# Entry
Amino acid sequence: MAASRSSVPRLNFGKKLLLLAGSLVWVLVHAQSLAPLEFEVASVKPHPLPVGVFMRRPWSPAIQCPAGFLHCGITGNRFDDEAASLKDLIVDAYGVQTIQISGLPTWADSGHDLYDIHAKVAGGHVPTLGQVRSMLQTLLADRFQLKIHRETRELPVYALTRTKKPPKLVPRQKRCIPHGAAKGARGRAEPEIDDPDAFEWSWAAELEMLTAFADRPVIDKSGLVGPSYCTVDGKDPLQAIELALGPGGGRDPDGPSVFTVSEETWGLKLEPQKAPVDILVIDRAERPSLN
# Structure
C-alpha cells in the first residue's frame, strides 16, 4: 500500500543544509582522490656536459643512478633524477623497459639532451615509489607536453631460456670482477669489496642491455630470480658477453654471434618467439619548459 504524504518524513531547512554540506564534502573528497598527484615544487634544468661528450644511463628497474656522481630517487620528501634523458624519465615515471617505448623523438635519447629534476613533496610527506611515479607523470605532461597511449603488440622477441645443463651463473655475493680489475699478489683478479648499490649489476639491467646485442627485445624465461648474478668464474655477466663477442658486438658475420656466446658464457640460450608486449606509444613530446 502506497504511503500517504503525511507519513513521509519532512526535512526542515537545517537538515536540508546539513545534507547538502555532507554531499559537497563527499564530492570534494572524491574529486581530490581523482586529481593527479603532483610535486609541490619542481625544477627542470639542463644537465651540463663537456663539448663532444654524450652519456646514456644504464636501465634500472627503479629510479636509480650509478652511485658516486649522480643523485636519483627519494630522500625524505625530496625527489631527484639527474642526467636523465626524456627516455630515462619515461622509464622512471611509468616503470617500463626501454623496449616498451615507441615513437620517441630522436632528441629524447640522443645522449646530449639530459636534464636534472629536483622536486619536493608537500607537507614533509615521505612519498612511496608509486606516488613519485605518478607525480613524475604529471610533471612530464606539464613540462615536456608528454602525451601517450598504451597498446599491446605481438612482437618478435628472443626468450632467454635454460639449456639441459645448469646455468653458468651464480647469485652475486660480492660485486663481480669487472674487466681490467687490478691483479692480486698471485697474479689473478681479486674480487672487489661489497657493492650494496649494485645498480649497474642487477639481473634486470643485464637483460635490458642484452637486448642491445640482439635485433629484437629479450624477455626472461630462465627462471632466474636475481637480484643479480656473476659468472661461475666471478665476472660480470654482460662484460663476459661483450668480451666474447669482440669489437663487432655480434654484428660481424664472420665473428661470434650473441646466440653462441650467451650459451657459452651464461649457459642460457636465446630462442626466437613471438610474445604480447605492453607498449607505451608517444603521441607528443617537446623539449621542456625550464626553470
In short: The CA atoms of residues 248 and 255 lie 7 Å apart. The mean pLDDT is 81. The chain has six helices and ten strands. Strands lie at 41-46, 72-75, 78-84, 101-102, 115-120, 147-162, 169-171, 218-220, 229-231, 268-284.
